[in-house]
Amino acid sequence: MTIRSPALLLFAVSLIGIVLQGTHSLAQHAGASQGATAPSALQRYLDIDCGVRTEEGQSAIKEVLAFQTDLLPEFIRILSQGPDKQTLENLAQRLEREWTEREEFIKKNPRNVLTTEDLAALHALTKEEYFARHRRRLDRKYREKAAFALAAFGSAQARQALEAARKATEDTELKRIFNAALELMGQAQ
Questions:
Q1: Which residue, 67, 59, 85, 68, is CA-closest to 138?
Q2: What is the pLDDT of residues 104-120, one digit of tens each?
Q3: In this structure, are residues 174 and 3 in contact, taking their beta carbons and an 8 Å threshold?
Q4: SS3 category, 155
Q5: Which candidate, 10, 16, 14, places its Cα nearest to that of 182?
Q6: Among the listed residues 66, 63, 19, the one whose alpha carbon sits nearest the alpha carbon of residue 11
Q7: I need a labelling partner for 155 at 20 to 30 A (CA). Which of 66, 86, 106, 183 fits?
Q8: What residues contact 119, with CB distance under 8 A and at least 6 apart?
Q9: What's the distance, Cα to Cα, between the start and end of the chain in Å?
């Protein structure tokens, strides 16, 4: 299988490096010494948008690896169901605020800032489309992160979850992500 997305390729290569370096034992000590908890490690990993080659990204994946026994069921749930109810409610609240600010901005008739085409595009986007777009983006981000965390775990249960998710989805992008994660598991063995 070929990984076509440069960002996905960079993430995959970085993750392989972390797994192959044997950072699991180091991560167990680092997570415990920093006072991290499994829920905080999970949330930090899901929230960061940087790659695992950055210091923050490496630290986040190491914390997740330190708590893999505790986090395995949650990553499997995220892989198959996406973000939890609270996360989706938080997203909806944030989007509601953004939509209100957007509407206020449009009412000011910002022709000196935006082109006529930009304004037309803003007017064409419905609130429902805006919310759906952001929800899909968050869902994909969480499922992708879950897939690569499971690949880093490398367990038989993680592999089974990835294979089941790949089989269950009709989303070609998610299928590609799940294939890349499974490929990573094969390389890390």
A1: 85
A2: 888 886 777 788 888 88
A3: no
A4: coil
A5: 16
A6: 19
A7: 86
A8: 106, 110, 111
A9: 17
Measured in residues, the chain has a length of 189
Residue tagged 């939890």 (tokens): 84
User: How far is 50 from 11, CA to CA, in rounded Å?
Assistant: 9
Query: What residue ranges do the domains of the chain occupy?
Result: 6-188
User: What's the pLDDT band for 14 if we cut at 50, 70, 90?
Assistant: very low
Q: How far apart are CA 47 and CA 60, in angstroms?
A: 10
Chain-centre distance of CA 27, in angstroms?
20
Contacts of 88 by beta carbon, 8 Å cutoff, 6+ apart: 135, 138
Take residue 59 and report the two structure tokens written for it: 């630290």
Burial class of 36 by CB neighbour count within 10 A (0 to 12, 13 to 18, 19+): buried
